[in-house]
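Give me a protein, keeping tokens residue-aligned:
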Amino acid sequence: MPTSAAGGAGVRRGRAPGTAQQGARLQPTPCARCCRYCAQAGAGLLAPSPPLSGCRDRAHGQGRAAPWPCTARRSTASPTRAITASSSNLFNMVVEVPRWTNAKMEIATKEPLNPIKQDVKDGKLRYVANIFPHKGYIWNYGALPQTWEDPHQKDKGTDCCGDNDPIDVCEIGSKIFSRGEVIHVKILGILALIDEGETDWKLIAINVNDPEASKIHDIDDVKKYKPGYLEATLDWFRHYKVPEGKPENKFAFNGEFKNKAFALEVIKSTHECWKALLMKKCDRGTINCTNVQIRDSPFRCTEEEARSLVELVPTSLNKESNEEEQVWHFLDK
């Protein structure tokens, strides 16, 4: 259980010098300006068209939340189509959380057009804790569009059903991306987190334009060229909920990172689930599948209707700094 810095075993809290982050913080509302781009593009997280290219709104670099995708400029890749005929493992990733940041931003699948918003629990904005030596998220964190982990379908390998979200991606390149960007990534492997009894896949990927991308092709290459990164990733996912008073997370396959071939099969499977979702062939629960792209989808709307939805979205800024981002937790392991 969490304790103060003066407490006993468990989590110890303290402050590290030079870690305070000042500046604007957000209420959990998406950026209306970018939503207008999204509506013009006829997009939404679950839209079947190829994901769109990265956001060009400078406000994103300043912490403003925006929907995915947020420009009308199309990309050349989709989760089921390679960028080039000779590259079958290149996909588009939606960046939800830039590396070293704490705000728990995620695609709001229950809202029309699926904006990226900060998660809220008990009326409070959520932040991931700093657990020494990790500052916030240790990768660019996001999701793979056109995928869905079906909560009604049990995975044969994990023996657990899906977590009802798009599949998550940990991008391990050197560049820090902005929230809302859509980038080309190369899939390297995958980790099977079991989160409160649900399968929560974590893809390991690298930006195709990263200086090291040309020599990192599979999970063993990550071990070779970025020693310690996978171990840190396992440690991060195991402990990130402990400061909230929750137990350590568990993993399928004894925490083993599976290779690229395994990961691609998971992507293929979750894409099939996504297609069934968009065509109303399965129980979607509370997921909002509104889109303007797929002609045969019963959830399709017009671009005018999408614009109207976006224009109703309020925007607001909370200029207060979040104290939790400045606190460090030290675990007795």
Q: What stands out?
A: The CA atoms of residues 129 and 240 lie 7 Å apart.
